[in-house]
Every structure is written in C-alpha cells, then in structure tokens.
Write a structure and sequence with these properties.
CATH topology of the largest domain: Immunoglobulin-like
Number of domains: 3
Helix content: 40-55%
Order of helices and strands: HEEEEEEEEEHHEEHHHHH
Strand content: 15-25%
Structural class: alpha+beta
Number of strands: 11
C-alpha cells in the first residue's frame, strides 16, 4: 500500500503544472492510508471539493490562500495553498478513551455516512453567512439593497442558517444513536418493544455526554436512569397498556 501511495504521489507531481489550482493527497497520519471524502475548503472563496478513494483532491486556489481539511472523527487542520507543488496532508484521528483501551474511529458506518453527507451538502454548509447591513448615511437604511433583493437575501440567509442548524442536530443524533442503542439498553435493563422505546424517549442522551463518556460511564448512566424510571411515578407506559403498580 505504501508503494501505491508513493506511486500516486509521484504521478501527481508529474502532472502538477503552474496554475490557479492546487493538488494533493490526504492520508491518515498514523496508518498512512488514503482518506476518502475528506472535505477540502478554500477559506478565501468557500469553494470546496472532496478527496476520492485514493485520497487525491484538486481545488481552485491561489498561492497563500488558507485551505481547511475536515473529516468526521479527525482533527480539522489548515494549510496554505501552493500551486507549484503537490500538497501532502496528514490528518490524525480523534481518540475516544474507553476503560480498557484507546479506540480510534476507522471508517465506521456512522463516519462514512456523515462524510458523504458533508460532501453532498458542502456548498450549503460552507456558504458564508450574509447579514443585511444598515447604514446611518442619508438618514439610515439598508446599504446597497432595496425592496425585493432585501427580502430574497433575508429569506436565503434564514433558510441557510436553519439548514445548518438542522444538519448539525441530525449529525449529532446519528452519533448518539451509535452509542445509546436499543441493543445495549435492552441488555442492561431487560426492557423490550414499546416499553424499551418509551424508556429511551423518556431519557434522551445529550450529544456532549455521548462524545465524552466511557463505556462504563454510559452503562452506569443507563442503569441509573432505569432505576429512576422504575419508580411508579416516573414510568411511561406504552399506548394501550396500564401500569400494574
């Protein structure tokens, strides 16, 4: 695999010409494996692209412009664009510390799905927020815009802001669902079916806790909530069923 990467890297150098575009390859800093669907963004103009299966990318850029590289489960990094040579970027994974060992995320279904979603909606996610400016000149008012353009700009800004907020919430919930699963909860509580769903809906997990909790802490959280849930006043019975307490 290392020889393949070197071959691809050499090929990129051979093909690289002086121009308003940068080319490179993104790899895992620990394994040196190519990273697929890394989001590459030119901060100067918000243009973006994603790496292919070989970790290779091409992005319009000028020398010295700041380029951001982001990938689910990895540290986001920035590099200065260079159009006269191939830029090799090494990204290092975030570590999730468990009780027994260190687990490094490695192409989990959640990670792959999230990366694909980021790549698919990169234009919307990287769109710069445009707020309507107000000027005090000539008695005040909206600078440079009147009538219909103001309404369209305001609506577009609000829609894009709402989209980003919903996208973030959806991605956070997907991550929570990878840790707070029905299988784990059922094994710890003995609940199943509608009762299991009612319990999990009554005790939703926060994203920050899902990100930072160890496996042991997560299990203790579920068991603690189950103990509280079993108190008669707290139980939420599925529709059509009555409590026997």
């Amino acid at each position: 695999m290392r020889s393949l990467i070197l071959t691809l890297f050499t090929l990129l150098i051979t093909l690289c010409v002086h121009g308003q575009a940068m080319r490179g390859i993104v790899v895992d800093g620990e394994t040196q494996q190519p990273l697929y669907l890394v989001n590459v963004v030119n901060n100067a103009n918000s243009q973006s692209t994603a790496t292919d299966e070989r970790g290779i990318y091409t992005l319009p850029a000028k020398n010295g412009e700041v380029i951001s590289f982001s990938y689910i489960g990895y540290h986001t990094i920035q590099r200065l664009a260079t159009t006269d040579s191939v830029l090799r970027v090494s990204m290092f994974p975030l570590s999730v510390r468990l009780q027994e060992y260190i687990l490094h995320p490695d192409y989990t279904p959640y990670q792959k799905d999230s990366a694909e979603m980021v790549a698919r909606y990169s234009t919307e996610l990287n769109k710069k927020a445009i707020k309507i400016g107000f000027s005090s000149a000539n008695g005040g008012g909206i600078s440079g815009l009147i009538g219909g353009p103001v309404q369209r700009l305001s609506k577009s800004y609000k829609q894009n802001k709402k989209f980003k907020e919903n996208f973030q919430k959806e991605q956070e919930q997907k991550y929570i669902d990878t840790r707070y699963t029905q299988q784990l909860t059922s094994a710890l509580t003995g609940l199943s079916g509608d009762t299991l769903v009612a319990f999990m809906n009554s005790y939703p997990m926060e994203y920050k806790f899902a990100r930072t909790a160890t496996d042991l802490e997560l299990k203790m959280w579920v068991r603690g909530n189950y103990k509280d849930y079993m108190k008669p006043k707290n139980r939420v019975m599925p529709a059509g069923r009555k409590s026997q307490h």
